[in-house]
Amino acid sequence: MSDKTQESMMEDDEFSLLLKEFVDSALDDDNDNQETTSFLNDEEEDDEEKDEDEEINLEDFPEGSVEFNEKNTVKVEILKPLRNPRKKLDQLVGCKNIKQQISDLLLFTTYNRCMAMGNPGWKEHNVSLHAIFFGKPGTGKTTVCKIYGSLLREVGVLSKGHVVICTRSTFLGTNWGDEEKAVRQVLEMAEGGVLMIDEAYLLNSPHPNDPGKLVIQLLMEILANEYHRDIAIVLCGYKEPMQQLLDLNAGLASRFPNRFEFADFTVDELMEITLRRMDEYKYHFTRAAKAKYKALLTEAYAGRDANTWGNARFVANLLEHIYLAHAKRCVNYAFAEDAPTIKKCFTITPADVQPIDVPKPKPHVGF
Description:
The chain contains 14 helices and 9 strands. By secondary structure, the protein is of the alpha/beta class. The chain has 2 domains: about 10-260, P-loop containing nucleotide triphosphate hydrolases (Rossmann fold, 3-Layer(aba) Sandwich); about 265-350, Helicase, Ruva Protein, domain 3 (Orthogonal Bundle), CATH 1.10.8.60. It has a 7-stranded mixed beta sheet, with helices on both faces. A two-stranded parallel sheet has the order 8-9.
């Protein structure tokens, strides 16, 4: 065998090892496409597992705010990256299509970086990280956005992985030019992570002088140089108005190739979300209480309005109502002779499970 052939084989082996190392470190495929339905048990988790679930507590992610002037400041929420985002992605209830799309994007970005490192001078693919999240409230858009930023940090395409959450009101001040000032400040906060704009379609109202339109224009300028920018922008909102925004602005649409659609949860998925949230407080239903709760949930789901149904938010509100009734019952019993035991204090009974109002569509006014 010639020295040249032997050298070529060694280079191939080195590259294969490099590729394997990248894929193994960036993606844990053991649980891909599997629904994780287990809940936390009654035993204390060890410190290592707790650490995995916590946010990364770095000083680089302070609370943020947009300052238009000394008297006008808008608070901006900043979500820190997660320590184990892949685990969080796998544990999401439902969202099968979302999990697969994110896995595919991560695989492509990992392959892209590996090829570039193993082949100096190779032209990298221009992988866009910007995305559209179509979905109603309570379908997990913010949760997935947080996981998304953390995963992009983990594979090395974002330097920080935090998420800066904004709405229309974040950008609009009271004076001319405030919009540009706000966009610059927000982009500086989001550098290295994700800029999430909720209900982004509100930035493009039919009024020709709407200041929100300037925000879209400024973002377009930033996105035009996306190849060298350490940031991912995610626009969120209801599907129809978000699609109208993209249809009206072809340049904007072309810069957001990643489209994620968040569907309504099913009743069974909402039940799973319920049990997971209850388990965080170590509560559990009696058999009769669980049956009553599912009946209430099924009835609310069947009569839901397409524009006002809250999905997981409805579950959160219903559980808060149940927790309040449960707490009142336990406190009242504490002053009686048959004071509840510790076990009973963690048991949700049928008496605790009461319905709440389901949001109804607003009546149409006019012709």
